[in-house]
Amino acid sequence: MVKIGRTERQPETRSKELHTTGVPQPFKLEYFVFVEDCHAAEYQIHSLLEKKGLRTSKNREFFDMEVNEAIEIIKFVENTRNNSKPDFRCELDLQILASTISIPLGYEPIERDDAERLSERLAQIARRGYPNGMKRCAEIFEVNSPSALLFRNYWREFLELSRAKAIHYPLASGGKELRYVVGQDAAEYIARLHSKGWLQEEDFSFISDFLISGDQFQYEGYIQQISRYNLPILIKKRAEEV
After folding, report:
1. How many other CB atoms are there within 10 angstroms of residue 229's CB atom?
2. What are phi and psi of 87, to 5 degrees?
3. Which of 49, 39, 35, 44 is closest to 3 using CA atoms?
4. 20 to 30 A from 55, CA-CA: which of 93, 125, 150, 198?
């Protein structure tokens, strides 16, 4: 049984304080790490372990697991804050971490400073291999705190991350379908920009370059999806020309 908790003081001091009359043996300090936000880190680690069914009792900091496994989980959560390459094998765990960031649903307004802070925290997790997290960042600046520039930046990053995920999988093992969806998401980018009145020529140029650097499955997904939108004739024609 492992206890995982936070302290804003020296870990050794906190460990000794926990040795009370209700505890038969002193706690052995196995590992500690300095983090930027210990409250957020603890919440994310506990949420992930609870989802895995390792928590011994709700609202308690004890987990039924090996020490080395606990250390790996802590490192995994903390590493979401760096610029490591995405690992799409961890997507489900990253989805759980993303769910710990409280972002209002629907069209509830968010102040710009708060929106930027929340989106960047979410983007840190998404960049490790959770494309839909990046899509959610874009949506914040589409509906909660409108910004054409930030919407563009995050949606484009979402497309690039989604393509990296699609390439990660062989064509015969889901990769073909994923690449097709990437093309559909590229078409959705055009449609969403148009609906907000943000669509510019540079957006067509970006999508054109994006599709050219991809493959036929992405292009097919794009063409089929763009034809489904009720866009003005000139815009649809321009979109189909990319």
Report:
1. 16
2. -125, 100
3. 49
4. 125
Exposure string (b/e) for 52-63, b if CB count within 10 Å is 16 or more? eebbeeeeebeb
3 membership: H or E segment, kind and range: strand 2-3
227: tokens are 């034809």
Digit-by-digit pLDDT tens for the chain (242 residues) are 899 999 998 988 888 888 787 777 888 999 999 988 899 899 999 999 998 899 998 888 999 999 999 999 999 888 877 767 899 999 999 999 999 998 887 889 999 999 999 999 999 999 999 999 999 999 999 999 999 999 999 999 999 999 999 999 999 999 999 999 999 999 999 999 999 999 999 999 999 999 999 999 999 999 999 999 999 999 999 999 99
- The answer to whether the pTM exceeds 0.90 is no
Interatomic CA distance for residues 43 and 61, integer angstroms? 10
CA–CA gap between residue 15 and residue 28 (Å, rounded): 7
Burial 102-124 (b: 16+ CB within 10 A, else e): ebeeeeeebeeeebbebbebbbb
